[in-house]
């Protein structure tokens, strides 16, 4: 599986410099677009996690920005420029619940009791854009593909639950990932 985006630095609309209309509670909530290509033909569901390993020295843990599970690939459109690549469009995180209710999104790190400042589901169970406080950070988007949906995951699952479900799914998930930079 191959993951790509039309940028290497997360554009302002999806990160720290997002306009007020692209924020909820001060947090950027418009998810960035990306593409998934070279998928194993047996894969029917996608799952992903967007995390910030560079946050560890800042807050003591890897910041979780977005998790998704059980997204049927049949619900996605192919990229107009590449008939082999599935397109995850901009603002997909906010649109997905209405468009594809069987897919679920997990909690991000804004839901952590260590952060403890937010309880709005639109912020804690959706895309939470990069806002590095100290320097540019490198973000990792990892996508897995499976033949069947993962069991036991409901809206608001935690990242560790996604990892357990992937481990216990009875197959070797197809996997791909990219790194993108978020500006401080």
UniProtKB/TrEMBL annotation:
SUPFAM superfamilies: PEBP-like. It holds the Pfam family PBP. CDD domains: PEBP_bact_arch. Belongs to the UPF0098 family. This is Raf-like protein.
């Amino acid at each position: 599986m191959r993951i790509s985006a039309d940028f290497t630095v997360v554009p302002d609309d999806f990160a720290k410099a997002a306009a007020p209309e692209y924020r909820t509670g001060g947090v950027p909530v418009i998810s960035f677009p990306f593409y998934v290509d070279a998928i194993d033909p047996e894969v029917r569901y996608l799952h992903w996690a967007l995390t910030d390993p560079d946050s560890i020295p800042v807050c003591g843990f890897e910041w979780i920005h977005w998790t998704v599970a059980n997204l049927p690939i049949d619900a996605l459109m192919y990229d107009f420029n590449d008939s082999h690549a599935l397109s995850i469009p901009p603002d997909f995180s906010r649109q997905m619940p209405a468009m594809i209710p069987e897919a679920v999104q997990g909690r991000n790190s804004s839901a952590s009791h260590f952060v403890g400042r937010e309880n709005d589901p639109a912020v804690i169970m959706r895309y939470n854009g990069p806002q590095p406080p100290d320097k540019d950070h490198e973000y990792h988007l990892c996508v897995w593909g499976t033949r069947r949906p993962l069991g036991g995951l409901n809206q608001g699952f935690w990242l560790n639950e996604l990892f357990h479900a992937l481990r216990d799914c009875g197959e070797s998930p197809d996997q791909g990932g990219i790194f993108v930079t978020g500006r401080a």
